[in-house]
Design a protein that fits this description.
alpha+beta; 4 helices; 32% helix; elongated
Length: 128
Amino acid sequence: MWDDFIIIRLDIIYSGSEEMQVKVYTPKIIEIASEYLPALAKRAADSLGERASEISATRGHLVRQAIQDGLLREFDDLIGEDGTVDIVCDPGMEIPLELENRTLTLTELLEALHYKRTWGDMKSREAA
């Protein structure tokens, strides 16, 4: 059930003698057209540099990049002054993306999306 939700961070500040800041996570379903995924994965990988080949790809990487790129304007207020996007896409933790039951790094996700190859095809090419 929760796999279908994007969790949004909202700050609420209470007035009074003391201020308290609370993060409220609200489920929201979004859609990103599949033709945008390769470009989003590329920019997310580029932003991580060499670490992209080590970090597991998550929906959060793609959603945060879509927000930064202006594809999801309703979330513009979640972009901080430093350009980071304050959003969590899976309850508890960000779940890595998998292809054929194997966790992908951002670099591998980009390659799979770009070349539309299976994990086995990617590994065969690396071994050659």
